[in-house]
Structure formats: structure tokens, C-alpha cells
Amino acid sequence: MKMILLGPPGAGKGTQAKKLIEMLGVPQISTGDMLRSAVANKTALGLEARKYMDSGQLVPDEVVVGLVIERLKEDDCQKGFMLDGFPRTVAQAESLEKSLNQNGVGIDAVVAILVDDEELVGRITGRRSCNSCGAIYHLQFSPPPATDECSCGAKGLIQRADDNEITVRQRLGAYHAQTAPLIEFYKIRGVLKSIEANAKSPSEVFELIKEELKL
Ligand code: AMP
Predict the structure, then answer these.
(1) How wide is the angle at C-alpha 113 spanned by C-alphas 164 and 152, nearest 5°?
(2) Angle, vertex CA 44, rays to CA 43 and CA 49, nearest 5
(3) Which residues of 110-148 are buried (b: 16+ CB within 10 A; e: fewer)?
(4) What are phi and psi for residue 136, nearest 5 degrees?
(5) Using an 8 Å Cβ cutoff, are 199 and 104 in contact?
(6) pTM assigned to the model
(7) Minimal CA–CA distance to 3: which of 145, 94, 107, 127?
(8) Cβ of 17 below 6 Å from ligand 1
(9) Is 88 a known active-site residue?
(10) In angstroms, rounded to a whole number, what is the distance separating the alpha carbons of residues 136 and 156?
(11) CA distances for 125 relative to 92, 130, 139, 153, 172, angstroms
(12) Is 169 one of the annotated active-site residues of the chain?
């Protein structure tokens, strides 16, 4: 299964990706995670990407496309993959399509998880994650077992640098201007599955995704 998870920031792509990869046995490829790791390791790419990420803008296409195309060549991606947060522009989608076509493959399904902006702001500003195992919580809707402690036992849950309200509004602007057109792009190709996720819990959304994908 070669899949893409599409949707605005805070729609739950990362949470659903984790549930889906467990079920499908394919790797999750999150460009956000790859870029954050480059930032943390202070690589040249990370230093370049950080300027955009901190202000809620998209990192230039040529930086991200190269990263993903290289990752997709690795052995674990040959039977399938779950792209989370990529593509985010029509140019990225076209580059991905071209690269996959060269290898005679295509995307099987694009799941778009749709949530209204006001709900997204509340979801993102309350989001906390575990630096050790990657678990994602929400202070109100999906709280950790103990204050500032993950179910894996690690202490000190973190808030992403770009999960503050000002940057979130900028990220939502980038989503509507640059990423939302991908819904039409994949609808035309007959692979789009849209999930309305307003006011739904992660497990309710997961059930809807399984239904759509006939899993
Ligand atoms: P995410 O974790 O997917 O919300 O991504 C966090 C930030 O990383 C975004 O606001 C962008 O600055 C950058 N980013 C992640 N994926 C992409 C992408 N496919 N294209 C451009 N920028 C990206």
C-alpha cells in the first residue's frame, strides 16, 4: 500500500499514520519529523529549514523533494509507505508522481483528513509530545497518564516550537494557499478519500479511514 495522508496541521495525520503503519506494516515517512531531526542535529539542511519552520512557512520544494525521493529508494519502502505531511504543494506532488512513474508505480490512496481552522488552533496549541517514543497527547482531549509524563515512562513532554497560536495561523494560511489544491489534484486521479474529522476522536477518525480503505 502506497499512501499519502493529507490535511491541515493539527488534523491528526501523525496520530493516524502511527495507527495505520502498525496495521499495514509499512514505514511512516514524515517530512516534518525528518526536518525537525535535521534541525536538532544542526545539519546544513536543518539550519536552512529552520528559518521557514519557525515562521510557519513551507520549506522550499527542492529541499523537501530531494529528501523524500532519497528516502523512498530505501529497502523498507519497496512494498509500500505512508507519506505524512508530503506532498504539500502541487510542485511536490508532480515531482513525486514523476519519480514513482519512472519506477512503474503509483499512489494507491490519498486520505485527506479535514478539520475546520478554529478547531485546529485549539488542537495544536494543546498538543504535547514525547521526545523519547514520539507519542502525541493533547492536554485536554487526550491527556498523558500523569502531568508531564509519557505512558512509556519518559518525563518532560515537549511542545513543538511552531505550535504557538501566531505560527499556527501562518501554517494554516500556507495550508489553504499551497496544500489544499492537492485535494483536487488527487480527486482527478481517482485516489482521494476524504474524511470529515471535526469534533471526532482519533479512534472515530481511524474507524472512518479503515472503512474508506476497506481495511
Ligand atoms: P509538520 O510536522 O508536518 O506540521 O511540519 C512542520 C513544518 O515543517 C511545516 O510547517 C513546514 O515548515 C515544514 N514542512 C514539513 N513538511 C513539509 C513539506 N512537505 N514541504 C515544505 N515544508 C514542510
Answers:
(1) 60
(2) 95
(3) bbbbebeeebbbebbbbbbbbeeeebbbbeeebebeeee
(4) -115, 130
(5) no
(6) 0.92
(7) 107
(8) no
(9) yes
(10) 13
(11) 28, 15, 9, 23, 13
(12) no
| Residue 128 contacts residue 159 (beta carbons within 8 Å) | yes
The answer to whether the CB of 86 is under 6 A from ligand 1 is yes
Query: What are the extents of the domains in the chain?
Result: 2-26+79-213
Closest CA to 117 of 201, 11, 12, 194: 11
Query: What is the per-residue pLDDT across 89-117, written as a single tens digit (0 to 9) for each?
Result: 999 999 999 999 998 999 999 999 999 99
Provide the 8-state DSSP code for 58: P
**What CATH number is given for 2-26+79-213 in this structure?**
3.40.50.300
Residue 81 confidence (pLDDT): 98
- Cell (9 digits) for 122: 485549539
147 neighbors 46 (Cβ within 8 angstroms) = no
**Nearest Cα residue to 157 out of 179, 187, 132:** 132
**Residue 183 — very low, low, confident or very high, per pLDDT cuts 50/70/90?**
very high
| pLDDT > 90? residue 72 | yes
From residue 105, alpha-carbon distances to 78, 101, 155 in Å are 10, 5, 43
The answer to whether 210 is a known catalytic residue is no
- Which residues are registered as beta bridge partners of 51? none
DSSP annotation of 57 reads P
Q: Which atom of ligand 1 is nearest to the CA of 167?
A: 10
Probe target for ligand 1 pocket from 5, 15, 31, with the most ligand atoms within 8 Å of CB? 31
- For residue 145, cis peptide bond before it (omega within 30 degrees of 0): no
